[in-house]
Specification:
The complex is a heterodimer of chains A (about 300) and B (about 270).
Chain A lengths: L1 E2 H15 L3 E5 L3 H4 L2 H6 L4 E3 L4 H13 L3 E7 H7 L1 H9 L5 E6 L17 H6 L5 E3 L4 H13 L4 E4 L4 E2 L13 E4 L4 E5 L3 H14 L4 E5 L2 E3 L3 H10 L3 E8 L4 H10 L7 E6 L9 H7 L4 H11 L3
Helix pairs in contact in A: 1-8, 4-6, 9-13
Chain B lengths: L4 H25 L5 H5 L1 H11 L14 E4 L5 H11 L38 H14 L6 E6 L6 H12 L5 E7 L2 E2 L2 E2 H4 L5 H7 L3 E6 L3 H11 L7 E6 L22 H10 L2
Parallel strand pairs in B: 1-2, 2-3, 3-7, 6-7
Antiparallel strand pairs in B: 4-5
The chains are: A alpha/beta (about 300), B alpha/beta (about 270).
Chain lengths: ~300, ~270
């Protein structure tokens, strides 16, 4: 168990050592997002822009226009929603090298409550042309995603969580490529972020009940791996998506859009936040309250696959 | 610096040529924003012809001064100046706002000389801050000029940027406020007053220069003073006249976003001879 944000902060320092064009901006949350690690080592290349996200995003665009690779961090809600127009018009429209690494996404933010629980950020970022959207499922993937983002020419949004996250086995990351973590012929569970672990646990339970579930780690939401989705639709009896985000516009939305264009129609169930705002509570309580547990996935699987 | 009478005369001639291009371009395009292009013409013509360190044949030269039209709707002025400096042939101006043209309805990087797109108001001063910071990091002494509209500074982000540019001591940043007193819906003071302007920018920590934005000498002097100021960004608050140079367009709010008809264009060009 590790914090994705720690790994992010450490990876940034690594990048900063290799490349003097890496510049980092934060909006008064550097101790939480861990960009403070970078600030300590490279104070001249770190700018704390204060509580002013719009100015921060457009400043990032200006830096990128002069050849800088700019990492911008704050909480997911403020990173995606507060400065959306700046991200669209000043960053993405120009295809600038700005990497938005947002922490504290989803309901697992916990006690801070609805105002701080970004459940719409994937949708907001996914809809903008040129933007890549990545939701790493563990710390190893987080490191690789940050490195890949630095190499990619253009804007990237990386979504990280607040709590510690379990390490999965052998989850290498490549932009645009889904990982099949568990083989199965009956149903497919396509998950991202912390829901990948829930999906694996659900598959274990389902196995005992005679259902072979395939588990897919869809760590790139955009560009999404349509081929893997297509294979799931073709080779199994149905698809379940699992995400710590609204079912509108996120992973469930993206998979729905993809399979709607495919010839083999299969049923789909979306595990995620059902068009609601969050609330205060401990992360585990909230995951249960909002239907984001392995049991919820198992229930959906049984609906799709009645024995 | 001292400027000869001849120099000023030549410059005045250039402003007329630029205004003519703006009128011709907009009349052909059939849509666009003449009022705010004409009001900023003297300011930006002085900048482009007298002060800007740039290489039109090498638009990506790293040492170049940056110009950003944050009030992107004044791009006919931007395009006229870029073509006059040789960034692209003048004939491109006649494709303004047409499908697949390099001259979009608002500034766009497909146009040689445009650094960053604009159009959504309020973002440009922040963009200019980023450009200035990059210059500082790269140990380059280029200047960054950012044209703002008066209606535009009603955007909150402008004040976020005003605060941070002063905090970051960006003396290579020069904002130019085209204070023509009108926005689309009417007079700025009646829509959402922005005064007292000089005091506001001073309170935010800026070096404030208040000038007549149609007096070429005052404009030249303001840019000269900007280059001597240390540790602070500069804003030139330029009092201007919307639609300046064409009698029937001056201070007529309708010409913020309406282009002259064929007849009106003919009359305007006659006046600008």
């Amino acid at each position: 168990m590790q914090y994705q944000r720690n790994v992010y902060g450490e990876t940034l320092v690594e990048l900063g050592r290799e490349n003097k064009d890496i510049v980092v901006l934060d909006a008064d949350l550097s101790s939480s997002t861990r960009t403070a690690f970078f600030a300590r080592e490279f104070p001249e290349r770190f700018f704390n822009m204060g509580v002013a996200e719009q100015n921060m995003m457009a400043t990032a665009a200006g830096l990128a226009s002069c050849g800088k690779i700019v990492f911008v961090s704050t909480f997911a809600l403020f990173a995606s929603g507060r400065a959306w127009d700046q991200i669209r018009n000043s960053i993405c429209y120009n295809n600038f090298n700005v990497k938005i690494v947002a922490t504290h996404s989803g309901i697992s933010v916990g006690p801070d409550g609805a105002s701080h629980q970004a459940l719409e950020d994937i949708a907001l970022m996914r809809v903008i042309p040129k933007m890549f959207v990545i939701v790493p499922a563990d710390c190893h993937q987080t490191r690789q995603a940050v490195l890949a983002a630095a190499k990619h020419l253009g804007p990237v949004y990386i979504r990280l969580g607040r709590p510690k996250i379990e390490d999965l086995e052998n989850q290498d990351f490549e932009i645009g490529k889904a990982n099949i973590i568990r083989k199965g012929k009956d149903i497919s569970i396509i998950a991202c972020g912390i829901m990948v672990k829930q999906a694996l646990d659900a598959a274990e339970i389902l196995k005992k009940e005679g259902v072979e579930a395939r588990v897919v780690n869809m760590s790139t939401l955009k560009p999404i791996d349509k081929k893997t989705i297509f294979d799931c639709a073709k080779e199994t009896k149905g698809i379940i998506t699992a995400e710590e985000h609204s079912v509108i516009g996120g992973l469930g939305g993206a998979v729905s859009e993809a399979i709607a264009e495919m010839p083999s129609k299969k049923p789909l169930r979306k595990i995620g936040v059902q068009d609601r705002f969050g609330q205060s509570g401990e992360p585990a309580e909230l995951m249960k309250e909002y239907g984001l547990t392995k049991e919820d996935i198992v229930r959906a699987a049984k609906e799709l696959c009645p024995n | 610096m001292n400027y000869s009478e001849q120099e000023i005369k030549d410059l005045a001639e250039k402003t007329k040529e630029v205004r003519r291009l703006i009128i011709q371009m907009l009349a052909r395009a059939g849509s666009g924003h003449p009022g705010g292009s004409l009001s900023a013409t003297d300011l930006m013509t002085v900048l482009f012809f007298k002060k800007l360190n740039c290489r039109p044949q090498e638009s990506n030269w790293p040492g170049r001064d940056r110009v950003h039209f944050s009030k992107g709707h004044a791009c006919p002025l931007f395009y006229a100046l870029l073509s006059k400096l040789g960034y692209f042939p003048e004939r491109e101006l006649w494709n303004l706002r047409r499908l697949n043209s390099i001259l979009q309805g608002h500034p766009d990087r497909r146009t040689p000389g445009v650094e960053v797109s604009s159009g959504s108001l309020g973002q440009g001063l922040s963009v200019a801050i980023g450009m200035t910071l990059a210059g500082r990091l790269d140990r380059r002494d280029y200047k960054v000029y950012c044209l703002l509209g008066d209606g535009e500074i009603q955007e909150g982000e402008i004040w976020e940027a005003a605060m941070s540019a002063a905090f970051l001591k960006l003396n290579n940043l020069c904002a130019i406020l085209d204070y023509n007193k009108f926005q689309i819906d009417g007079e700025v003071k009646k829509i959402m007053g922005i005064e007292p302007l000089v005091q506001k920018w001073q309170a935010f920590g800026w070096n404030v220069l208040e000038i007549d934005g149609h007096n070429l000498l005052e404009i030249l002097d303001a840019f000269d003073i900007f280059k001597t100021v240390r540790e602070r960004p500069t804003i030139i608050i330029a009092h201007t006249i919307k639609g300046k140079g064409v009698s029937f367009m001056e201070n007529v709010v309708d010409f913020h976003g309406r282009v002259p008809s064929e007849e009106e264009a003919k009359k305007a060009l006659e006046e600008l001879k």
